[in-house]
Amino acid sequence: MRVKDIVEKLNLEVIVNSNLEKEIKGGYCGDLLSNVMARANEGELWLTVQSHQNVIAVALLTEVAAVIVVENFDIENKAIERAKEKGVNILRSDLDAYELAGLLNQFDFKED
């Protein structure tokens, strides 16, 4: 399943469209950047309330498929610009991380 499929199925707002064709391999929920750096994996969707430019650096380091900012948190302009420069997908949902993770859990992200 690709990022664009999740955008459509869950009606997510696309803030930065870098490459919505990226394959999704799973997900990670977390707001403590050091934990995300240690535990998030390439190809995962990262659910967070964080929305500053350091998020983009962590997304690049972990190679997540997309960052999903939950609870309709505002996203700093610097973060949006940095995501565009570096090619990081940023999405947004009005759901909280618990609700969104529950919905994402219904999908099979295993590689064929």
Key descriptive features of the protein:
112 residues, alpha/beta, Udp-n-acetylmuramoylalanyl-d-glutamate--2,6- Diaminopimelate Ligase, Chain: A, domain 1, five-stranded mixed beta sheet, 5 helices, 5 strands, globular
Please characterize this protein's 3D structure.
- A 5-stranded mixed sheet has the order 1-5-4-3-2, with helices on both faces.
- It has 5 helices and 5 strands, in the order H-E-E-H-E-H-E-H-E-H.
- It has a single domain (3-104), classed as HprK N-terminal domain-like (Udp-n-acetylmuramoylalanyl-d-glutamate--2,6- Diaminopimelate Ligase, Chain: A, domain 1).
- With 112 residues, the protein is an alpha/beta fold.
Quick rundown:
The protein is of the alpha/beta class. It contains 5 helices and 5 strands. The protein has a single domain (3-104), classed as 3-Layer(aba) Sandwich (Udp-n-acetylmuramoylalanyl-d-glutamate--2,6- Diaminopimelate Ligase, Chain: A, domain 1), CATH 3.40.1390.20.
